[in-house]
Design a protein that fits this description.
- The protein has about 170 residues and is an alpha+beta fold.
- The chain has one domain (about 5-160): Nuclear Transport Factor 2, Chain: A.
- The protein contains 4 helices and 4 strands, in the order H-H-H-H-E-E-E-E.
- The chain has helices spanning about 20-25, 35-45, 50-55, 65-75, and strands at about 75-90, 95-105, 110-120, 125-130.
- The chain has a 4-stranded antiparallel β-sheet.
- The chain is globular.
- The two termini are about 30 Å apart.
- Residues about 160-165 have low confidence and may be disordered.
């Protein structure tokens, strides 16, 4: 099925064409760092390397970014996103997004828990860098991170013996 028939991977509850695709195609700006982070996550899911490079702060870009991101996208299957907190920095042009992105790797669930720093330049948010944080504890009675609507214990907890950390 086409990408536009599925809910957006960013877990907004909208379909992709009504959500991150608008940002990926430059039809709307991202008014918050959280929306930029969600659109970047979706770009990772769909292999949109151009958007990932475009939303990386210009001073952080390297010539090898497209190649490195392409390799990462090809080997990673993202399966869930949980936003923990979105906070404004000390300066109005800085914000932080604490999130956990879940991926399936060799039959194991792995987490990328990060506190990302974003900077706003001319009304556009750019990813600057991130601080790796410890994995979160997955509670069995919480909604599953994959967005299925089921509790974790009835969904991905079936892989509980295979949950791994980085």
């Amino acid at each position: 099925m086409a990408q536009n028939t599925y809910p957006c991977p960013c877990f907004s509850g909208k379909l992709y064409p009504d959500c991150c695709e608008l940002m990926h195609k430059g039809k709307v700006d991202t008014p918050t760092a959280e929306q930029t982070m969600r659109a970047r996550y979706t770009a990772f899911c769909y292999g949109n390397i151009a958007y990932l490079v475009d939303t990386l702060h210009p001073r952080m870009r390297r010539l090898s970014d497209s190649f490195s991101l392409s390799r990462l996208v090809k080997k990673t299957r993202w399966i869930g996103l949980k936003i923990i907190e979105h906070t404004q920095g000390d300066k109005a042009d800085t914000a932080y997004v604490d999130f956990v992105a879940f991926r399936l790797e060799h039959g194991e669930i792995k987490q990328q828990h990060e506190r990302s720093r974003f900077v706003n330049v001319k009304d556009k948010w750019f990813y600057v860098d991130g601080e790796d944080l410890p994995d979160i504890k997955l509670e069995r009675n919480e909604p599953c991170f994959c967005g299925s609507g089921k509790k974790f214990k009835k969904c991905h907890d079936t892989l509980a013996g295979k949950i791994a950390t980085d």
